[in-house]
# Entry
Amino acid sequence: MRDRNWWLLVAASGTLLVAAGAFGAHALEGHLAPRLLAAFETGVRYQAWHTLAMLGVLAWRAATPMAGQRLVLGLWALGIALFSGSLYALALSGLGRLGLITPLGGLAMIGGWLALGACVLRAGPGMGRDRERR
# Structure
């Protein structure tokens, strides 16, 4: 199976985000300051969106493998780890200095979206036309 490790990473991320969302909604409510709970929820939300985006790129890659798609996946995976991971750690530990990592994760996520755009531009205007004719 092509990209097996990416699929496994996305499955793990999806599992973690559902568990983190449930944990945040049920175990942390009332135990964290509202701003820390909001930070935790932001981490879950960004992890969810980027996990779904990774699924989309993997599906696209299965149909049309292109240079740059792995870069997109890598940047988003790094972004999830740094952005969401640092927000989870910040909320659970209360250590404000962990928030210094969060912007690096955000930059990786933004870089992934820019890399996606570059990948599409590199593919040219005829991308996918042969499939549309079927």
